[in-house]
Each structure stands twice: as structure tokens, then as C-alpha cells.
């Protein structure tokens, strides 16, 4: 085991990143209406509450998507399937028009872009933005959604991965 900090010192950011690379996370693309619309790949998506239903994702406030998300009333969160690595990569690439590079989408309610064929999606109303270091935690209330079948795309150790077996249900 590698120790990354003493008991009273903050963790070095590079060591922190190395530690968190060991956590496998689902890959989502978050989209918001704008001129042009914005979208980005996120691995920080999670459910927060059932009563009321709330979800969250985090976004770097220096991101090119932040100004639009900072003022957006609605966003869509798309859970990508194991066969959608190309979509994850497109929406993770800086300096491109992501909606021209990826043509499989349409405008949904509130003009929020909806990607074609994710394994699940949620259309959400943004309820709160909480500053957290260099990021913001965006809390959102799901208004609509849909899901299909398929294994999720995962992010682990700096790359994309997929499940090779069905999870045990307990």
C-alpha cells in the first residue's frame, strides 16, 4: 500500500487523482441548451435522494461548458452503454463542436439536446449549484427519463471499460 500523505497534511492533488483512478465509475454525458448547445462527459454522476428525487454531477468551473450550465434551468444526463466509447470520447474532447462531431441527437423538452440510444437518460430541472473547490456540484430534480437494456460504459484507471459478467443480485 502506498501512503499518499501524512495524517495532518492535505493529500497531494496528483496522488489524489492516482487514488481515485482505482474507482470504477459509470460514464455519462450531460447536455444543456445554449447557443450552441453544450455537452460534456462526466464520471461524477450519482443519485442523491429518493424523497424528493435528486441527482448530482460535478463540473470544473473553468470548463468551456460551465458558463452555459451555470445558467441552465434544465439539463439531460445520459448513461452511456458499453458500446458508446466514441460518444464518451467526443464529449470529453476540448476545442471541438461536440454536437457537429456527434450527429446522433435531437432537441428534447426545453431545447435540451437528447442523445440517441443511451442505456438510460434523465431530463432534469437544476435546483442548486454548490461551489466545491475548483468544481461546482450541480443538483438536479429528474422530470422525465427512460431506460433500456445493456451494460454500462465504465471509466477505470484512466480508460474506458465494460462489465464482462452480469452483476450478482443480492
TrEMBL record:
Its EC number is 1.-.-.-. InterPro entries: Flavin_Rdtase-like_dom (IPR002563), NADH-dep_flavin_reductase (IPR050268), Split_barrel_FMN-bd (IPR012349). One of its GO terms (molecular function) is oxidoreductase activity. Residues 20-162 form the Flavin reductase like domain. It comes from Phytohabitans kaempferiae. SMART domains: Flavin_Reduct. Keywords: Oxidoreductase. The lineage of its organism: Bacteria, Bacillati, Actinomycetota, Actinomycetes, Micromonosporales. The keyword Aminoacyl-tRNA synthetase does not apply. This is Flavin reductase family protein.
